[in-house]
Amino acid sequence: MSKETQQQPISKGHSLWSDAWLRLKKNKMAMASLVVLIIVGVLCFIVPAFSIIADPNTQDLNNTFLSPNSSNWLGTDQSGRDLLARLLYGGQISLLVGIVATTVSVIIGLVYGAIAGYAGGKTDSLMMRIVDILYGLPFLVLVILFSLLISEHAKELTDNLVTRWPEQEVFIKKFVNLVPLFIAIGALGWLTMARVARAQVLTLKKQEFVEAAVSLGLSHRRILLRHIMPNMLGPIIVYATLTVPGFVLTEATLSFLGLGVESPNSSWGILLSEGANYMETYPRLLVIPSITFCMTLLALNFLGDGLRDALDPKAAKD
Description:
Layout: H1 3-7, H2 16-26, H3 28-46, H4 83-119, H5 121-135, H6 139-164, H7 169-176, H8 179-188, H9 191-204, H10 208-215, H11 220-228, H12 233-256, H13 268-276, H14 284-310
């Protein structure tokens, strides 16, 4: 072997995720959306933790409908509550509903669809017919009914936790009351995820590495968990990012109808509902939450599109 050949540097390989990150960075809209989401997350989850802003539920009937000023940067609402505080704390609830409900739906849909696709035959047909039947039912009505059904259990849990930790009453009531909403939206929103997971499994189980695992005598459980599911992460992550805005919108719809987050807590849906009552006299109460809500949803959608393009194996050939 010549010295020139020995001195040639060895090029490092690139993983799927590093290549995807390089392609994602080239997508200016996706990166801008990522920055927007980071800013929204910091404002909603980190800033309120330092008690920089006012209590979102403190009413001051002597200072209703104030215009933006040094004390209330976005003004006050019809009850004299700081609009900025309610916007940020409402963002906590809306984003948590979207993220937690998406996590629940991804877990259920991934397991259900993977089992159906891997089992095949009559088992696959039966499981997917169940999905088709559930698809025919009105999603929003089912969420409302299911949420009301389990709300009583959530109230009992809240009372037990408050009795045990009375000093955390406000925190417990704020978040435990959201459990029915998390479960209802997530437990009924997994149908499309199941179809996505099934389609991926049907493709992957015909690949050579799966046939090699079968020939080695590995169990079906090990093949599914260790060999197939890790190769499904790309499409699953993409679909999850596109599901979050849909679930945030569902929460906003339920809260707008008075069936979501309980008073006096706020969410973006509640702020839109309250602002709609004063859209002619005080449009600021509707415009500010609407802009924040739409900007966040658009950022989630653009980021999801960017991830879809970045994780597309065909993009590696470009």
